[in-house]
Amino acid sequence: MDIGDIAAVETADDIYYMDTGMYETSGYGSVYIIDADQPAIVDTGIGTNYERIIDALARVDIDPHSLAHLLVTHAHLDHAGGAGFLIADCPNATVHTHERAGPHLSDPAQLIEGTKAAVGEQWQYYVEPNPVPESRLNTLSDGDTIDLGDRSITAVAAPGHALHQMLFYDTTEDTLFTGDAAGIYVPEKDRIQQTSPPSQFNLETCLDDVRTIETITPETLCFGHFGPRAYDDKLLSSYKRALVEWVEAVRQKREEAHSDENVIQHFSEHAKLTDVWGEEKARAEARLNVRGVLAYLDWQATQPEWVSAIVQSNMGFLGNYRKCERSPSLGKPDSEDTNDRTASDQLPAMWAHRALHDTTAHSRRVLMIVLVFVFKKRQTE
At what angle do helices 305-326 and 343-378 cross, to 10 degrees? Predict the structure, then answer.
C-alpha cells in the first residue's frame, strides 16, 4: 500500500482505511473512514497533507459537508493533528474525543511544546495544528456512545499509552479502533511493535489496556499504526510479552550504561524495522520509545515499595497466565483438534483462567486506584 492509497477493511462493511504518508513513510499512519448514515473519520493524522484525507472522502463518495463525526482516539498529534484543518473543510462535523484530550485540541499550545520535546528532529514533518473550537467538540467518558445512524460507536477508556486515550468500538461491525492501545501493527512482519512514548507511558496500565481489548474480543482490530488485522489472541499475548521484555531491556541497559543518552543511542543504533520504515524513522521511533520507558522507570523509582511490589506481582501473574495458556494439561484445545474436544474437556482451562483472574483482580484494582491518584499529582492534563 502506497502513500495516499485507500482500501476497504475486508472484514467490515463500509469501513475504509488510507495511508496518510505520516513522516513521509508508507505503512506507518492510517486513518479510517466509516461510510455510515452519518459518516465518520477515525483519527486525523499529523495535519501535514491533510488534503489526502479529503481526497479519500471523495473516492468513497462522501461529500465533506456530509461528514458528521471526527473520532480522535487521543490527543497526540499523530492522531489529532489534522482535526482543526479537517473541520474547516467539513463544516458539519463534530470532533469526539476523551474529556482530557478536549482542552488540548481547543488550545494546543502545551501539546505542541510537548510534541517538539518528544519527537526532536521529527518535528520537521509536522505542522502546527489549528485549534478546534469548543463549540465543535464533544468530550467523552468511558462507556459513552456516538450515534452514526445505522450503527453506534462505544468509547472505551484505555489510559496506558496516554491518560486521554480511548478505544472506539463499532458494535455493529464488531470492529475496534485501537489508537495506540494495542501497539504498532507491522503488516510486512505480521507482528506488533511496542510503543512507549513519553510522558505518560505506564507498563501496567498498558497491559490492562490489552486485557480490555481481549475482553471485548472484536472480530477486527483497526490499528492507528497501521491498518486492520483480524483479532488474534496469540498476537495480543505476544504484544504483552513484548512490552514487558522491552521495559526490562531498557532497564538492564540503563544499569550498564553511563548515561541515559548512551541508552538512547544504543537502541537507536540497533533499531528494528529499518527495512520497513527506513533508517531515519525506525531510529527516531526507537529514541522516542526509550525516552518513554526511562521516564516510566524514573516514576516507578519514586513510588513506595508496596506499589512496586503490586506492579511486580501483576507482571508475575501475567507470566503465570501465559504458562497456563500453553499448558496442555489444562485441557485448552489446540488449533488442530478444536472440533474433536467436548465442552467438558475445555472446562479445566476455563477454571484456570478464572482462578488467575480472580486472584489478580483485587491487586489490579488496588494498583489502578494508586496509579490514578499518583498520575493526578504527577501531571495536570
Answer: 160
Give the three cell numbers for residue 97: 474525543
* Cell numbers given for 268: 537507536
Residue with cell 491498518: 227
Please state, in angstroms and rounded to a whole number, the distance separating the CA atoms of residues 353 and 242.
Answer: 21
Cα–Cα nearest to 181, from 170, 190, 194: 194
Set of cell numbers at residue 239:
504484544
- Residue 117: C-alpha distances to residues 22, 261, 280 (Å): 18, 15, 18
Closest CA to 120 of 290, 241, 2: 290
Q: Cell digits for 187?
A: 503488516
Alpha-carbon 102 to chain mean position: 18
Please state the φ and ψ torsions of residue 146, each to the nearest 5 degrees. Answer: -120, 120
Q: How confident is the model at residue 337 (pLDDT cuts 50, 70, 90)?
A: very low
Torsion sign, CA atoms 222, 226, 229, 232: negative
185 close to 229: Cβ distance less than 8 angstroms: yes
Give the model confidence (pLDDT) of 307-321 as tens digits: 666 666 655 544 444
Q: Residues 342-356: what's their mean pLDDT?
A: 35
The per-residue pLDDT for range 232-281, each reduced to its tens digit, is 999 999 999 999 999 999 999 999 998 999 999 999 999 999 999 999 99
**Cell matching residue 281:** 524513522
Hey, is 309 helix, strand or coil? helix
Tell me the C-alpha distance between 15 and 18, whole Å.
Answer: 10
Alpha helix (H) ranges present in the chain? 51-59, 77-80, 83-89, 102-106, 109-119, 203-216, 233-256, 260-269, 274-277, 279-301, 305-326, 343-378
Q: Which residues contact 253 (CB under 8 A, 6 or more apart)?
A: 263, 266, 267
Angle CA 305–307–311, to nearest 5: 115
